Amino acid sequence: MFASVFSAAISGMEVHLIKVEADVSDGLPSFTMVGLPSTQVKEAQDRVRTALKNNGIALPPKRITVNLAPADIRKEGAGFDLPLAAAVLAAAGVLAAEQLGNVMMAGEIGLNGEIHAVSGILPMIIRAREEKCRFCVVPYDNLKEAHLIPDMKVIGVSNLQEMIRYVSVPDSYKKPVEKGKKISQENPADFCEIHGQESLKRAVEIAVSGFHNLLMIGPPGAGKTMIARRIPGIMPELTVEEGLELTKIYSIAGLLPAEDPLIRIRPFRSPHHTCSAQALAGGGRNPRPGEITLAHRGVLFLDEMPEFSRRSLEILRQPLEDKVIHISRVYGTYDFPAHFMLCAAMNPCPCGYYPDMNRCRCTPAQVGQYLGKLSQPLLDRLDLCADVSPVDFDGMSNGKIGENTKQVRMRVEAAQQIQRERFKDEKIQFNGEMSGKQVENFCHLDDSAGRLLKMAFQHMPFSARAYHRILKVARTIADMDASETINKEHLGEALSYRSFDKKYWN
To answer: Are 247 and 261 in contact (CB under 8 A)?
Structure first.
């Protein structure tokens, strides 16, 4: 007897609908699985057989064949356990085959028949809705995540017996009443906790307003990490579409919080400097999102940037330009979104105190070697560099409370609203995303700013990429002043954030 049910396979960010076909026929007792299953998927037959036996359901001593179609897509993960069990039960006559028609299932089965949560449920439900499936059956622990898609019927099951009961009579299922308070995802860190560092705060506000990449250079303990962790708080709230997009990414990565699965705040990812290139970019035999994708629509913070391996840093160059990371494997090429704001912090030398010759213990060769870990092509992709000085005693002890996060965010939102209006007919949102052609169209200088730019270009030779990034930053500063034209003051401030080339890398 033949039966089939739908499941899903995740390849990168894509979800493929998989038809799980089962046939129970006369012949020597065997259990064969075909259709390019991974080792983990092949192990499902032992889990399913044992789980059924422990629930009082014995498979007939016949030839059982399972096919996962299409056969050219590799199937990974334990999510095929539940559809495999359902298809085999229908083929064996325990379930009616027509009850599985146009139904999608995913879930891992324990040896006692319990259904365990799996990653990637949200994108699977979205794909099932696109394919107009009648309903979906998922683990009960994935139910909150699945219910983020309101116009799709989803049944949550805790064990095999519930799956059999609800598939046989879908109308008998009642959606559970959600209890408990919604967990806040708000960032408690506030800008007003930072003493002094007004110039650094200004650079951060500019960077966030235009979604520019930022590098902070200064001695240890100056507040670089402290201010970086407060950046998500001054970024505008996620839109509904952005929240679902991020939730989909974190679902595939298996990082969604169980109690409140919808991502509501912009991510802040801070990988350790020992992070491998693969962990940063994403990968694996069946590629999964890396740190740069987990920072999508948010902040990727690289503390002690020169301590990262050269390979890890150079991987950033392509996604910083394209806002997407391409990963090639034998089975195909996978694209992951990588539209993040890069915020990096570093000391100017191994001891951290250069160019203060009274405190710096490093030789010129050591300083040069340390700074040389950052290539010029990577530096060109950084829009702003803020020189961070330590806060003096008066700045720490005066008790003055600066602007709070809400006040700064209001200014950021105002500047970004100007950009959204400007780019409403373009495929971008922020100044930091402009192409060379768009820079020419939208970055208009007045006469004094034009003369200043020419003079700066003659005295501080820039690459074409650095030239465009200076204009992008100047455009953002002008937007913060609600000015249609970039004037001399706007351009001068933008140029000041490129002086690090001459100070440290000359």
So the answer is: yes
